TrEMBL record, chains A, B, C:
Origin: domain of life: Eukaryota
Pfam families found in the cross-reference section: Dirigent
Localization per record: Secreted, Extracellular space, Apoplast
Family: Belongs to the plant dirigent protein family.
Record-linked PANTHER family: DIRIGENT PROTEIN
Keywords for the protein's UniProt record, in alphabetical order: Apoplast, Secreted, Signal
Gene Ontology biological process terms, A to Z: phenylpropanoid biosynthetic process
Organism: Nelumbo nucifera (Sacred lotus)
Protein's UniProt name: Dirigent protein
Presence of keyword Magnesium: no
Described function: Dirigent proteins impart stereoselectivity on the phenoxy radical-coupling reaction, yielding optically active lignans from two molecules of coniferyl alcohol in the biosynthesis of lignans, flavonolignans, and alkaloids and thus plays a central role in plant secondary metabolism.
Length: 188, 188, 188
């Protein structure tokens, strides 16, 4: 191999380093291992006209056939609920909260239970200070559902990822608990 | 240093250049060609008090001057609509659905028709299983409008992109059809 | 060209490959300097039953104990407001608008003032044509709050970043002005 050949390979390589690479993002498979992962629970107690003190959420939008203290017929289609729910590290409602889940969910299908969620985790623990923002469809009849982590702030600066949501408990139409397995694939 | 050693370093470098790097996210212009593109239609039939059977959406929030069965005056300003709309591959409402568009839209301007959207495509076809999540302003008087693809799951794992939305049909105040040209620029 | 020269080029190349580029998105710290930054103000005048002409927003969802012309008790918990607010370059409501902030906010806590926002900046200036989409928690009692820029279109094609929000004025329960310091960390 002559020196000229080495040089020409070098030139090609150099051009490639400055020119071809990275055009790449949006084009290539990246690692599918999370760069950060955390499992949290949040607890929702919906206002039903009698539990003002304990309620953490309230119906604020309802369809023509609904009202604000009872989830509507037809699988709650058209109900919009605002919440400020405690987040805990385990599945116990009475554990010390590590933050609040704040935002809304809505029921969006007549035939079966299906919801759509947009909310934030506002965390303030020794481990994490910051917020994670979520959005996505929540087909409640599936054991697990994936929604998007669309951004983050503070310790979660610019984060993106997937949250796998699971209904961990469901008691009548007043209380439910979601287990959220947050997997971040973009960490800054 | 022998030529073979130079060559082996070169080989390593070359592998790394084409395999490991991906320069400067957040800093440089990346390719503006979509890594994935799909065109879909969705169909919205709003509840008007008489079409309970066919309706796929319902007004659930309205301003002081509005109600839940007629879109409000002033260009529907203040109406909030939850939907579960069939998605089709062509512009025919009666084609076999390939998924559901689920979420909400709201009308947000008094002077002209303008909306804001946040929803998911929940797809379950032979080609695609997964969800795409969208959010953005929808100035309806423009022929085409661009909204953001803010995330995805399943076959659309971690996707980001732009969706160009076009009103493909509009019949009275009960039915409309949107053509959505989804262009993903981040594919994982 | 001597072997040493080849080697030194190789060393440079190698350093650049491992040092200048930024391998494995989702895995490493990236630059924390914004690639684009802009400061804007927007102005919200809420409909109270008497100011139809000037109002830029309206309550469209309210809890059982609320109504559509007065923000609800308990720190407005459960109120959902749709807005189409003028954006200005300075803090003067009467300055020439450079666009509109469109979307919604909701109050989501009984004990203190806390909100959640999802909206777009629709900009049409000599400098910028395009939209920025935002979502996040807005704990109003904090002097500054960070929300996520979850996407953009036009001149903000595929943008991501953080917006630091500050209440710049608050007059009774009818008018407020937000200062938004938009910092984009992903520019395409």
């Amino acid at each position: 191999m002559g020196v000229m050949k080495v040089v020409s390979v070098l030139v090609f390589l150099f051009l490639c380093v400055t020119g071809c690479t990275s055009a790449a993002p949006g084009r290539r498979m990246r690692g599918r291992q999370p760069c950060k992962q955390l499992v949290l629970y949040f607890h929702d107690i919906i206002y039903n006209g009698k539990n003002a003190k304990n309620a953490t959420s309230a119906i604020v939008g309802a369809p023509a056939w609904g009202n604000k203290t009872i989830l509507a017929g037809q699988n709650h289609f058209g109900d919009l609920v605002i919440f400020d729910d405690p987040i805990t590290l385990d599945n116990n409602l009475h554990s010390q909260p590590v933050g609040r889940a704040q935002g809304f969910y809505l029921y969006d299908k007549k035939e079966i239970f299906t919801a759509w969620l947009a909310f934030s985790f506002v965390l303030n623990t020794t481990d994490y200070k910051g917020t994670l923002n979520f959005a996505g469809a929540d087909p409640l009849m599936n054991k697990t559902r994936d929604i998007s982590v669309i951004g983050g702030t503070g310790d979660f600066f610019m984060a993106r990822g997937i949250a796998t949501v699971m209904t961990d408990a469901f008691e009548g139409e007043v209380y439910f608990r979601l287990r959220v397995d947050v997997k971040l694939y973009e960490c800054w």
